[in-house]
Every structure is written in structure tokens, then in C-alpha cells.
Amino acid sequence: MQKVNVVKAVSLLSVALFLGGAATVDNASAKAVKTTNFRVTKITKNTHYKKSTFTKKAPKKGIALYSSRYLTKHVTTKKTHVFYSTQSVRVKKSTGKSATYRYVTNKKGTVKGWIWSGRLTGKQGKTTSVSNKVTKAPTTNVKIAKKTTVTPLKKTSSDPVYKKDAVKVNIISDRVSNSNFMGLKNVATYRDKINQWGTMLKNHPSAWDAWGKKNKYTHEQIHRLVDQVYTEEYQWYTYDLKVTFAGGHTSGLVTQKTIDEGIDYVDTWMSRANC
Predict the structure, then answer these.
(1) Calpha distance 169→163 (Å, rounded)
(2) Does the chain have fewer CB atoms within 10 Å around its N or its C terminus?
(3) Is residue 58 within 8 Å of 120, Cβ to Cβ?
(4) pLDDT value at position 198?
(5) Is the pLDDT of residue 4 over 60?
(6) Do 52 and 86 form a contact (C-beta atoms < 8 A)?
């Protein structure tokens, strides 16, 4: 069985939840897509002003409208060239940069959303109110996201299994955001890779024999080792990350670096398999 098939099979069992709804546009074919290259960490300024008119700087190009001031999802509209606005926010992004976004509508109100001010041209009306209160962006619904379901995996391959090869593998299912789980990225990717690794171990217990032989391990020794390191990663995700960290008890111990290193570690062990 090729690794790619394992990946496809396991991906059907894992679900990731992302924040945000769709912005409203007049393009019937427009589809909301998730923002993946950055996230908003906080709102640093909220300004209201008298109704102002803005136009697109690049009339022939589409323009992104975000569904919320946290810029979680956006759609692209090409038909609308004139926008009306009475509000803007200053946001700080995960990249460290800050930017201003205006909440706009078209004349009929059928197009609504937040647009980066750099895409618009026009004069802002007289300011009516300004708030410099800093508002942190919501990370994810931790109460929902920390819930984890594990499903025992049954062997589906025809590969031979020795009596001592019996291992218990559970597929992890939860609803974490891959872009921002309590400030961490790629948590869902980490979970999926652990699931892929467990599936390979359950269905192909001899997959690491060739690598083990090169390093002078017997089948029993290498199988026990792979099972042990897999179990450690599984337990770290389901308990240390999803229970202890999500409960606010391991501040500073679970970082983006540990997530990234965990992904690399799992990839390394899967690359040693021959299946």
C-alpha cells in the first residue's frame, strides 16, 4: 500500500474547524476561502466617521472582502467599483505588521465586508468617534476544540502480523483550527500526521524492518521502538496538548517550535517505513 493512499484514507477521518463566515457579495460564483498566510492577533484602533465614498484603485482587478474584522475568510468581487464606508479598524497581524481595514457596502447593500484601505482611493469623512481600546482576536472555541474523540483502528491490510506485533492504534478526531489553536499553527496537521503514522503501524507492522536491519535491529526490536515513539507522540497530542495546555496549565512548555518539531519528528519516522 502506498503512503499516499494511507494519507487519503486517514484524511477522511479528521476534521478541522476554522473560524469566520462568508462576506456578502454580488458575484454568484464567488466562494469564501480561508485566510492562510496570516491571522489577526488584535484590534488596536476603531474609528467611525461620516459616510464616505471610496473607489477601487485597480478597476480591472478583483478585490478581497473579509467577513469579519478578524479577517478569517474572504471572497473576491470584481463587479463593484464604488464603496461606501463609515468605519475602519487598525489591526495587528501575526506577521508583526499593522494595517487599516474599512467596512464597506455597495449602494444596494448587497456587497458587504472589510477591505484593506490600500486597495481603495477616496477621502475619509469627518471623524465622529475613535476608540484605542485593544481587543485581542479570538483564537478558537477552545471548549469545542479541546474535545477529542478517539476511534480504535482495525487492521485492513493483508500484511502478515506476528503475535508480538499486536498494537493498539486510535484515530484522533477533533475540531481544532489549523491556522490558530490558542495561538498555535499547524495543530491539525500534526494530528493528521500522527493518524497517518498509526495507520501505517497498524496495517504494515514490518514496514520499518529494512531500516531497522541497516541499524542492526531485529524485527521485534524495531517494531517495539516504533510503537513506543508513536505512542509517545499520540499521548503528547491527546493529553499534554489537548487537555493540559488547552486548560492553561503548561504555559511556555507548548510552543510553536514544539509543534513544528513534532511534525518533523513524525515525518522522519514515516519516511523510514517501506510500505
Answers:
(1) 16
(2) N
(3) no
(4) 94
(5) no
(6) yes
Give the C-alpha distances (Å, rounded to integers) separating 103 from 74, 88, 131, 155, 265: 13, 6, 16, 53, 43
Section 183-205 average pLDDT = 93
Cα–Cα distances in angstroms (integers) from residue 60 to residues 27, 78, 80, 81, in the given order: 15, 7, 10, 9
Buried b (16+ CB within 10 A) or exposed e, 156-175: eeeeebeeebebebbbbebb
Tens of pLDDT, residues 159-193 = 887 877 888 899 999 888 888 888 788 999 999 99
Q: Residue 11's pLDDT is what?
A: 37
Alpha-helical runs (H) found in the chain: 3-11, 142-145, 187-203, 209-214, 219-235, 256-271
Of the candidates 41, 23, 45, the one whose C-alpha atom is nearest the C-alpha of residue 32 is 23
Closest by CA position to 238, among listed 172, 167, 188 = 172
Give 237-254 as a 3 state SS string: HHHHHHHHHCCCCCCCCC
8 A C-beta contact, residue 34 and residue 18: yes
Model pTM score: 0.52
Q: Which residue has the cell 476608540?
A: 131
Residue at 41: amino acid letter: T
* Alpha-carbon separation of residue 211 from 50, 200, 222, 239 (angstroms): 69, 15, 9, 30
d(CA 195, CA 105) in angstroms, rounded, equals 44
- Indicate if the pLDDT at residue 142 is higher than 60: no
Q: Residue 141 — pLDDT band, cuts 50, 70, 90? A: low
pLDDT band at 271 (very low <50, low <70, confident <90, very high): very high
Cβ-count burial of 218 within 10 angstroms (0-12 exposed, 13-18 middle, 19+ buried)?
Answer: exposed
